[in-house]
Specification:
With 565 residues, this protein is mainly beta. It has two domains: 99 residues, Immunoglobulins (Immunoglobulin-like); 400 residues, Pectate Lyase C-like (3 Solenoid). It is 5% helix and 34% strand. The strands form six sheets. The chain has a 17-stranded parallel beta sheet that branches. Strands 13-16-19-23-25-27-29-31-34-37 form a ten-stranded parallel beta sheet, covered by helices on one side. Strands 1, 4, 5, 7, 8 and 9 form a six-stranded mixed beta sheet that branches. β2 and β3 form a beta hairpin. The longest helix is centred in the first third of the chain and has 11 residues. The chain starts with 12 loop residues before the first helix and ends in a 30-residue tail after the last helix.
Length: 565
């Protein structure tokens, strides 16, 4: 964004000279005349965490001095910081804040008159962990409507509600850093129906979407998140819009209903971390860290982390996208949320919660009832057959480790390992739940029981430790077959995991592999049959329970991050 300069009316050069004398300054109103051109070639390059190096082209006409101005952030006001001498072509700006965007512009002073300012140059200082992507920042202030590549030598700042649209593909190189602009509340990246995103990192060079705030000052809700809209099927009729949209002209309502292709392809996300996201303009109308709305099954999703977000970490609205190797740490609401006819598969996942997350002002509210998994059949407008609307929500969810806060941290309706309700189906296999606040599983509603009776809902190889109750009790709640769920209320998380202290403050403090002799190292359900076998074709049938194989590879190593701020 460029800030315009007001131009004072002048009737003569003499009047300008008088004004200059009266102000006792070499700088007067900008003079756009060709005889006093603006400096050219201004560049800005970050030099570590607290300095930015500026350079510009030597002018072809003599100058008295230059006027250098700086602004902080995408919308900050410019202020003068230095008057470099006539022969200068560079300036080192030091004493800056780490992981912060700075914008610069330069004017020339000739014969007492100041030229118009140059085009802006910007850079972001590296963060305290050595980030910054080389220091050259690109402001993303308009939608992406043609095929585009983002590269790891730059930092991309998303300003506002930006869309990949018009069938375009956004390719993102491994190691690229993308920051959501803190000054523009809710800044987000949307990939619309028909467009694609290919963000393919690796364990040594993940792609990171994060806050523009300096390290140590980042909070949940600093920016909006990553939203993908596909052409898959949902079970609600009429126009259904993405939650959290429709708040402004820059954030219009975006529908995701009406799709008919569960084999649609919205691209690939691999080794991608999304941090400090979420935007809640109203209750139950929030942008999540990852939102997958009607995303089709040809989309590839693997090795993803959602960290310290305002609302859900991963939310699937219909569609059939698979997800493999997923981490959710410190969610503002649910870690994994599936509804509206979602029929994809999720295998190898971790949900870890130690606290209620801290959020930035004006971003929304943290939920009082965060769950490990929260699945619904159909709820809201357009459920023509109520909770029996089709297609049913029938995911296959396998090999998860869910570690929660224990009692006394979340509200009484929260802290469940799984909540299955409102007509959902699905098959939940070889999942470990530890430290539930009160209940391991909330299995609710007669419509959900109908799915079980039809062979469309099952609980297999579930192990619940250090949690008072296996199932929620009360009206219209059901308990699955006891043989499918092992409840070990007196067995501690510390005894089943390889490394676990009583009250870990971060997933970095623990090791969730099975301990030697742990009951979760065995007991995995391998007798898949019927609807589970059909829907789970191609997934691994493991003899262990949880996200990590005994003695296996730590698939979270190298690319995940657990900092509170």
């Amino acid at each position: 964004m460029h800030l315009g300069l007001g131009t004072l009316a002048r009737t003569s050069l003499l009047a300008a000279a008088v004004l200059t004398s009266a102000c006792n300054s070499d700088a007067t109103a900008p003079n756009p005349e060709p005889s006093n051109p603006a400096p050219a070639g201004l560049t800005a390059t970050a030099n570590g965490t607290t300095a930015i190096d500026l350079a510009w082209t030597a002018p072809t006409t003599a100058v008295t001095q230059f006027v250098l101005q700086r602004a902080e952030g995408a919308a900050g006001a410019f202020a003068e910081i230095n008057r470099p001498a006539a022969g200068a072509t560079s300036y080192a700006d030091a004493g800056l804040t780490p992981n912060t965007l700075y914008r610069y512009r330069l004017a020339a002073v000739r014969n007492g008159a100041t030229s118009s300012f140059s085009s802006e140059a910007s850079a972001t200082t590296a963060d305290d962990q050595g980030g910054g992507g080389g220091g050259n920042e690109v402001l993303v202030t308009t939608d992406i409507t043609t095929n585009t590549q983002w590269t790891a030598d730059k930092v991309y700042r998303i300003v506002g509600f930006r869309k990949v649209a018009n069938g375009a593909t956004l390719n993102i190189q491994a190691g690229t850093r993308i920051i959501g602009d803190y000054e523009t509340t809710g800044s987000s990246l949307f990939v619309l129906r028909g467009a694609r995103i290919n963000a393919v990192g690796n364990a040594g060079a993940p792609i990171v979407f994060t806050s523009s705030q300096p390290v140590g000052q980042r909070l949940a809700g600093d920016w909006g998140g990553l939203i993908i809209i596909g052409n898959g099927v949902i079970n609600r009729s009429g126009v259904v819009n993405i939650e959290g949209t429709g708040t402004s002209a820059d954030n219009p309502l975006l529908p995701y209903s009406g799709g008919d292709n569960n084999f649609d392809n919205s691209g690939r996300l691999s080794y991608v971390r999304v941090e400090y996201a979420g935007f809640g303009p109203a209750p139950d109308a929030e942008l999540n860290t990852f939102t997958f709305a009607a995303v089709g099954g040809q989309t590839v999703l693997d090795h993803l982390q959602a960290h310290n977000g305002l609302d859900d970490s991963y939310e699937f609205f219909g569609g059939a996208a698979d997800l493999k190797y997923a981490v959710s740490t410190e969610a503002g609401d649910d870690h994994f949320d599936m509804s509206e006819g979602y029929q994809g598969r999720i295998q190898y996942f971790v949900a870890f919660q130690s606290k209620l997350v801290a959020i930035r002002p004006l971003a929304g509210n943290v939920a009082s009832d965060p769950q490990g998994i929260e699945n619904d059949g159909c709820n809201g407008s357009g459920c023509d057959a109520g909770q029996n609307s089709t297609p049913f929500t029938i995911p296959v969810v396998a090999n998860g480790t869910i570690v929660l806060t224990g009692p006394g941290v979340v509200g009484g309706s929260g802290g469940y390992g799984m909540v299955l309700r409102r007509g959902t189906g699905g098959h939940y296999v070889n999942i470990v739940i530890a430290k539930g606040a009160s209940n391991g599983i909330g299995y609710r509603d007669a419509t959900s029981k109908l799915r079980e009776d039809a062979g469309l809902l099952s609980l297999k190889g579930i192990y619940i430790a250090e949690t008072p109750n296996a199932f929620q009790s009360g009206q219209q709640t059901y308990a699955g077959p006891a043989s499918d769920v092992t409840h070990a209320a007196a067995t501690t998380a510390a005894s089943i995991f390889a490394g676990y202290n009583a009250n870990p403050a971060s997933m970095a403090d623990i090791n969730l592999f099975p301990a030697a002799g742990s009951p979760i190292a065995t007991g995995g359900f391998t007798g898949w049959s019927g609807d589970l076998l059909s829907r789970g074709a191609g997934l691994d049938q493991t003899s262990y329970r949880g996200a990590f194989a005994p003695g296996g590879t730590d698939w979270t190593a190298g690319w995940t991050e657990y900092s509170d701020n």
